[in-house]
Write a structure and sequence with these properties.
2 copies of one chain form a homodimer. By secondary structure, chain A is α+β, with helices and mostly antiparallel strands. Chain A has one domain: Winged helix-like DNA-binding domain superfamily/Winged helix DNA-binding domain (Arc Repressor Mutant, subunit A, Orthogonal Bundle). Helix content of chain A is about 65%, strand content about 15%. In chain A, a hairpin with a 2-residue loop joins strand 2 and strand 3. Chain B binds a DNA duplex (30 and 30 nucleotides) through helix 4.
DNA sequence: TTTGCATATACGCCTATCCGAATAAGGTTC
DNA sequence: GAACCTTATTCGGATAGGCGTATATGCAAA
């Protein structure tokens, strides 16, 4: 049953997390930060994207508490706010992989 | 390291799943279907949304293999394609809950 | 085959979001 | 405090995605 409180929580889940995950650049940022914290310019170098683009995406991730920022001297270091975020993404990836395998098996059927 | 194949996979993860999850109506549909399969009109009743709206969202979920459709007499029954989809969403929900608790604790600090 | 129910699609409009380019803001170093 | 480095923001234009309404399609029962 979709109780009002569940509806409310799912609405917030969308507003906070899911809509933030709906951009491939932001997914790449999260995976890059899953390895280790990085500064803005490091991220811009690694993703080969303009620095303003990176900053804009980091702002969205920061506002929704997916990443945290700490100043380190002249630069700002970003890190994942919760390691489990990539766990959730990895779970989706394995679902996706299994689906592809299943579809490939269907095609291979005589 | 963001290897080309990882970048490729994440790009597809976004295109297939994450962008499909970036709508609160679709999240509600997935949670409704997590309980039990339902027909289009049942879903429209439960979410109190127009039938074309439900059909449009179901099409998106179906195209990305998040749900599967089977005809049952005069109506069409939809079901989750993989139960783990809601597991991933539930993981995100618990991250969200923990974050809220953490922030509440910060505010409560003297 | 005609009628009717359930679902799917088309169209037009509106809003949200992304990007590139330019510029501002915040710290650090000298 | 002036110059510099890093990061953040703003602006305009382009695009994608959502919704309501109307309508089409697909089965099924008679």
């Amino acid at each position: 049953m979709l109780t009002p409180s569940l509806v409310q929580e799912i609405t917030q889940l969308h507003a906070d997390f899911c809509s933030a995950l709906a951009d491939s650049t932001r997914l790449l940022l999260l995976y890059a930060l899953a390895e280790r914290p990085r500064t803005v310019s490091e991220l811009a170098d690694e993703l080969r994207l303009p620095q303003p683009t990176i900053s804009r995406h980091l702002k969205i991730l920061r506002e929704r508490s997916l990443v945290v920022a700490t100043r380190q001297g002249m630069s700002v270091e970003y890190a994942l706010a919760d390691e489990r975020i990539v766990d959730a993404l990895d779970l989706l990836r394995s679902i996706m992989r299994d689906r592809i395998q299943y579809q490939a098996r269907l095609v291979a059927q005589p």
